[in-house]
Amino acid sequence: MDGLTAADLKGVLAPLNFLAPMAEKPFSYNYEPPPGTPLRNGSPETHQVRMHDARAVAGQLSLDREGFVLLHQPTGVADFYDDDEVKRVYYPECERLMREATGAVKVVAFDHITRNAALSAKGNRIKQPADRVHNDYTDWSAPQRVRDLMGDEAEELLRHRFAINNVWRPIRGPLLQSPLALCDASSLSEENLIASDLRYPDRTGEIYAVTYNPAQRWYYFPRMQADEAVIIRCFDSARRGAARFSAHGAFDDPQAPADAPPRESIELRTLVFFAD
Predict the structure, then answer these.
(1) 60 touches 1 (CB < 8 A)
(2) Cα(123)–Cα(114) distance, rounded to whole angstroms?
(3) Residue 229 has pLDDT above 70, yes or no
(4) Contact at 8 Å (CB) between 244 and 5?
(5) Cα–Cα distance between 136 and 114 in angstroms, integer?
């Protein structure tokens, strides 16, 4: 979509949290950091951003252009808080969905996060909505994740185009609180993608934090239902012809009712391999 199309869409003005520019490399810990070490060293910088309602143009969106698409995707999962059921039922569902949506020859679902502010607690796997704009993988961490997960196949797979795409959906709908803001990848400048360490007990990953740029165009899908899913392009190894990175983050919708239930959502990550 171009800016002219976006200007014609309905939407809301809402705060969105970016990374404040900084000299050193940002980091954050995914566990209790060593004594005297902060959980993260970057500071948020909040901007009021126009969130365009993308439902009116959902049929025009392209994973290779905007970096996200909305799909109708019923699921056979009864309990998204049951990790075993998610891996047994939802992983194969999303692998099939991703093959159909992208034409990939091989898809591997490898990770998921459930989010619910009411159930999130220190030490459990349920997280709060991620309210800072980010992108899950970088030019370094995406191929490294393939090497981490694909063993002896990795180097051959990396000779061909590959992507890392997320499947994001509400667990219950309509989703009213903390909807997901999605940046049109064609409006996202790589100078605003700041490589940031994500530290785990056993490894250090790398994501992109995002600094603000008024040229960025932001969208969301109001009142998402549990049978809807957004595919998000986090990385694509293609150097041309496809969106390589995108950005997303939760925001407070000013139109959400005061008694809106906490957002419940699940995001699942997939390695997506192509023949070319």
Answers:
(1) yes
(2) 14
(3) yes
(4) no
(5) 15
User: What does 42-67 look like in DSSP terms, one character per residue?
Assistant: --EEEEEEEEEEGGGGGGG--TTTTS
Helix/strand/coil for 78: coil
pLDDT in tens, 162-217: 999 999 999 999 999 999 999 999 999 999 999 999 999 989 999 999 999 999 99
Tell me how far apart the alpha carbons of residues 117 and 119 are, in angstroms, rounded to a whole number: 6
Specify the DSSP element, H or E, that contains 95.
helix 91-102
Q: Where are the beta strands (DSSP E) in the chain?
A: 11-19, 27-29, 44-53, 68-72, 106-116, 134-135, 162-170, 180-183, 193-199, 204-210, 218-220, 228-236, 248-250, 264-273
Assess contact for 44 and 209: CB atoms under 8 A. no
Q: How many residues does the chain have?
A: 276
On the question of a cis peptide bond just before residue 174, with omega within 30 degrees of 0, the verdict is yes
Residue type at 254? P
d(CA 119, CA 254): 23
Q: Which two tokens stand for residue 271?
A: 């390695």
